[in-house]
Design a protein that fits this description.
alpha/beta, seven-stranded mixed β-sheet, seven-stranded mixed barrel, 24 helices, about 20% strand, 4 iron, 4 sulfur cluster binding, lyase, iron-sulfur, Aconitase/3IPM_dehydase_swvl
Length: about 775
């Protein structure tokens, strides 16, 4: 185990200097004094600077600005001189804050430690939410997680204390809910090491998911680079009502744009329909914008956000936002690169899946489609919660349906799980009776954590390979993501529809038209869900779960044992040799969808996220090899034998043979996990050549010194054979906008040359030449 020279004590600072808000309600005041935590004081908000920068840019561009442009350009490092061209230029930005979840924070903090810097330059936090496995229930699962992950939690807590990073302990809740409750505010720019960081857009923020190396840049005080986003406008008209929920908006948008339609763009919602959506409902929509590849999503500031700020103890921020409201909404006459219009009054409940979050169906049609496709109609498990749908309103609407079933003597036919988004949500729904109703109908309340949504689920009701259906209120439903079973058909929908289908036990149940049968034979229909947007009383903060860093951590130490199998200090990657990359072996030619789950699986592998060598044993084990249609089975071209992808890669590395991966469209979609880039680099990879990339993964590859390249002609994918060798030419003249050439050498002795495109700018080329962005950072410090 790692050894630590620090025992971190709970530090509670005065309000406005890092303490949690104290609720004024007499019923909660005693508990609130105990349950103090960090939130963003209004004194830290500088709308004047944001306004000044926006005015500079607006005058330069001489046109109205969208809301996302205001916030993004308002955070430019050089608003006077920055070249701004949507979809083309790279912006140098100064985000306000960094947030990291525990699975990605390990590598981010290890990289920050390697940088040699004494303290983070911007407010930063670590959130323990990914390492808690769902087994039996919240209390037992949390206790078990603390025991199993003690080494990692101690490392994160002590590293946070030393380097000035706040630490949210296991049990505090999911990172995105904590951000919404404490740190998000209209106009802030926040980056987070999780792809669903855009959740904060529900409170008028620009919150962007990134890899750990990007987070290190911001924590180091270095301007952060982002390709100037295009802006997709989604105009909302009409009003949500009945069974239709905010989740249906993004399910519909995903069906329109697909999993890559938002790549390189910010999705900006606007129009009169916005006001019919709660603040947490807007967060739901922004959260799942990650599934269309969007850089982030955002809503304009309105009274729903003001009410949420006030209810979460941030009335001063609400008043300040009111004062600068014109800054926090789009300019009249602003232009979008694409516009989608959705009439909320006509929108119907949706359910998306299986196996991809953009396969959209109206709930009224899913039964017929499932029967035609041969999808299992029995719902085995319904799961509500996750960072997408775990608000007070979500839980209340689900409970309103559960109560109707209980009133008629019914319980869920399917298994049913409930994941509160935060300790504050858990405590409040317990106080207000929602938790009891959901438990009485058959629900198991899990820990305040990600759980099954990210594969942390010890599922035992079906065997691996057994075809079955589950319905969730999650955001992502890739093959085997939730339970490691590739035969599980996972569908994503709203918590209300999940609850209704769990009660009925059938995928083809339409709650708008179909009847349930009570034990006494009475037929009844569920009334549309209804619940308060926010609690009538103040939120109950629950237990104190926040640790603020000491004012000076320079005397503290964070030690990692060389014998640890969970944590490993990083060694610098080798620099570019200065020559073309010659005779690289094709490691695997991937067929079809290849998400970051395929490249670096989560679930049981999460425990190795702080140990690069150990977690590299999962590299590409979920990718389909085009040669034999198998997963984790490729031919070792040196031995002629078949083996696992990581094993063959290690063998090539040991024998001095560099290698490349060949991939299809939207390669690396899904999670922000930079391990999907670190692992190929660690095991000897040099280039990833595909038809197209997902944004975060492409950046992560660049950060680690790899070459993410795309076929100039997508049909050239078909020219490469699994046993080919490739030479990449033109690296001595590597420059922005200049394509590279690849010579393909076939085993029959023939060869052909193809053109490869890239999106590197000058700074990113320096990362490649130095061996990684972190190496380049160290060079600049010398």
């Amino acid at each position: 185990m790692a050894t630590y020279c620090l025992t971190v004590t709970r530090l509670q600072l005065a309000l406005g200097q890092g303490a949690r808000r104290l609720h004024v309600s007499a019923a909660l005041s005693a508990k609130a004094k105990v349950a103090m935590s960090r939130f963003e004081p209004s004194s830290h908000i500088n709308y004047e600077k944001l306004q000044t920068n926006v005015n500079i840019v607006r005058k330069r561009l001489n046109r109205p600005l969208t809301l996302s442009e205001k916030i993004v350009y308002g955070h430019l490092d050089d608003p006077h001189g920055q070249e701004i061209d949507r979809g083309r230029t790279y912006l140098r930005l100064r985000p306000d804050r960094v947030a990291m979840q525990d699975a990605t924070a390990q590598m981010a903090m290890l990289q920050f430690i390697s940088s040699g810097l004494p303290k983070v330059a911007v407010p930063s936090t670590i959130h323990c939410d990914h390492l808690i496995e769902a087994q039996t229930g919240g209390v037992q699962d949390l206790k078990r997680a603390k025991e199993i992950n003690q080494e990692v939690y101690n490392f994160l807590a002590s590293a946070g204390a030393k380097y000035g990073v706040g630490f949210w302990k296991p049990g505090s809740g999911i990172i995105h809910q904590i951000i919404l409750e404490n740190y998000a505010y209209p106009g802030v720019m926040l980056i987070g090491t999780d792809s669903h960081t855009p959740n904060g857009g529900g409170l008028g923020c620009i919150c962007i998911g990134v890899g750990g190396a990007d987070a290190v840049d911001v924590m180091a005080g270095i301007p952060w680079e982002l390709k100037c986003p295009n802006v997709i406008g989604v105009k909302l008209t009409g009003t949500l009502s009945g069974w239709t929920s905010p989740k249906d908006v993004i399910l519909k948008v995903a069906g329109i744009l697909t999993v890559k339609g938002g790549t390189g763009a910010i999705v900006e919602y606007h129009g009169p329909g916005v006001d019919s959506i709660s603040c947490t409902g807007m967060a739901t929509i922004c959260n799942m914008g990650a599934e269309i590849g969007a850089t982030t999503s955002v809503f304009p500031y309105n009274h729903r956000m003001r009410t949420y700020l006030e209810k979460t103890g941030r009335g001063e921020i609400a008043a300040l936002s009111d004062e600068y409201q014109d800054l926090l909404v789009p300019d009249a006459g602003c232009e979008y690169d694409q516009v989608i219009e959705i009439n909320l009054s006509e929108l119907k409940p949706h359910i998306n899946g299986p196996f991809t979050p953009d396969y959209a169906h109206p709930v009224s049609d899913i039964g017929k489609t499932a029967a035609e496709k041969g999808w299992p109609l029995e719902v085995k498990v319904g799961l509500i919660g996750s960072c997408t749908n775990s608000s007070y309103e979500d839980m209340g609407r689900a409970a309103s349906l559960a109560k109707q079933a209980l009133d008629h003597g019914l319980k869920c036919k399917a298994q049913f799980t409930v994941t509160p988004g935060s300790e504050q949500i858990r405590a409040t729904i317990e106080r207000d009776g929602y938790a009891k109703i959901l438990s009485d109908v058959g629900g198991v309340v899990l820990a305040n954590a990600c759980g099954p949504c990210i594969g942390q689920w010890d599922r035992r009701d079906v065997k691996k390979g057994e075809k079955n259906t589950i319905v969730t209120s999650f955001n992502r439903n890739f093959t085997a993501r939730n339970d490691a079973n590739p035969a599980t058909h996972a569908f994503v929908t709203s918590p209300e529809i999940v609850t209704a289908l769990a009660i009925a036990g059938r995928l083809d149940f339409n709650p708008e038209t179909d009847f349930l049968t009570a034990p006494n034979g009475e037929k009844f229909k569920l009334e549309p869900p209804n619940a308060d947007e926010l609690p009538a009383l103040n939120f109950d903060p629950g237990e104190d779960t926040y640790q603020h860093p000491p004012p000076d951590g320079t005397g503290l130490r964070v030690d990692v044992s060389p014998q640890s199998n969970r944590l490993q200090l990083l060694e610098p990657f080798d620099k570019w040799s200065g020559k073309d990359l010659e005779n690289m072996q094709v490691l695997i030619k991937v067929k079809g969808k290849c998400t970051t789950d395929h490249i670096s699986a989560a679930g049981p592998w999460l425990k190795f996220r702080g140990h690069l060598d150990n977690i590299s044993n999962n590299m590409l084990i979920g990718a389909v090899n085009i040669e034999n249609e198998a997963v984790n089975s490729i031919k070792n071209q040196l031995t002629g034998e078949y083996g696992g992808v990581p094993d063959v890669a290690r063998h090539y590395k040991a024998n001095g043979l560099s290698w490349v991966v060949i991939g299809d469209d939207n390669y690396g979609e899904g999670s922000s996990r930079e391990h999907a880039a670190l692992e190929p680099r660690h095991l000897g990879g040099r280039a990833i050549i595909v038809k197209s990339f997902a944004r975060i993964h492409e950046t992560n590859l660049k950060k680690q010194g790899l070459l993410p390249l795309t076929f100039a002609n997508p049909a050239d994918y078909d020219k490469i054979r699994p046993d080919d060798k490739l030479t990449i030419k033109g690296l001595k003249d590597f420059a922005p906008g200049n394509p590279l050439q690849a010579v393909i050498k076939h085993s029959d002795g023939s060869s052909e040359t193809i053109t490869l495109n890239h999106t590197f700018n000058e700074t990113q080329i320096e990362w490649f030449q130095a061996g990684s962005a972190l190496n380049r950072m160290k060079e600049l410090q010398q």
